[in-house]
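Thread: Newbie trying to understand structure tokens

Hi all, I'm a second-year student working on a class project, and my supervisor (Dr. K.) asked me to get a predicted structure for one chain before our next meeting. I've only ever worked with sequences, so writing a 3D structure as a token string is new to me. If someone could post the tokens and maybe explain what I'm looking at, I'd be very grateful. Here's the chain:
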Amino acid sequence: MNGPGIDLLNDRARDIFRVVVESYLGSGTPVGSRTISRLSGLNLSPASIRNVMQDLEEAGLLAAPHTSAGRMPTETGLRLFVDAMMQAAEPHDEDKRAIERELSGEGPIEDALNAATALLSGLSACAGLVMVPRRETLVKQFSFAWLSNTQALAVLVGSDGSVENRVVDLPAGTTPSMLIEAANFLSAHASGRTLAEAQQWLAQQIADGEHALDEAAQHLIARGLAAWSRDTADRPVLIVRGQANLIDAHAAEDLERVRQLLEELEGKSEIARLLDSARAGAATKIFIGSENKLFSLSGSSVIAAPYRGPGGRVVGVVGVIGPTRLNYARVVPMVDFTAQTLTKLMQ
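---
Reply by user tm_fold:
Sure, no problem. This is what the structure looks like when written as tokens:
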């Protein structure tokens, strides 16, 4: 944070700053000194309020759009408000009842996750996001099919019966017999493991010199495993609902920002990576505007919370994306409660 901490603001500045932020988050429009004098009950003249607002602007917490005489919080100001001033404890009772009702039924977990995104979108008037659990395939069998001197088709058969193909580049000097040898090695030693476990096991075996594999065979086997691992990590596993909520009454004032945000939502791989960063924490995370590179152009905020499966292991993330002026005090506990409800459902 570039601005001062909350402890460096005097009581008058805190009160005025709070009124500006809360009024802006409610209306989406800059707030003037006369509005503050009516709302705050501070018994201060508009001139005194303007002086404090000027100080807050110089501190980087407020900004004055050139089209308005009022002030609005900067991203730094929003971060200070969210971290140090916002009071958010429990979601509203009606929100809790709606979440519990929609996520209490039996059926596939995918149905619950779809319901969660639609529910959050409707309750928050934002777009709802859920990153679903990655299902790591257990290896059953590998094979390679010769395509040319430089490429082969790698075939993975999973324990669930799934079959996937990838084209891989071959190390120089690879022969068809080497492909057969590598496939037999992988099928014999990777069967029953996930791709990540197979890669880790192979690296350890080579490091320990347990198997007399020449360098070309090692490269070929490593490339065969990596072909799926990269794809699994990059594949967007994301449900997005309610993009239309992002085009609201204020969208006409900034169509370029909305266009940029909708484009960002199309890049699900990038959003999945952002949400993945929320898996590490135990609490709900809030990303405001340019704090995250992905949304630096559109000026959007993301609120995300991890949910857990059996054994308490984090398996996914649920959240919302909306404008930076969203109602954090209401939406943060709503997202957190949704994550807790999904966790109970998946236990």
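A couple of things are worth pointing out once you decode it. The chain has a mean pLDDT of 81. Residues 188 and 204 are 16 Å apart (CA to CA). Feel free to ask follow-ups in this thread.
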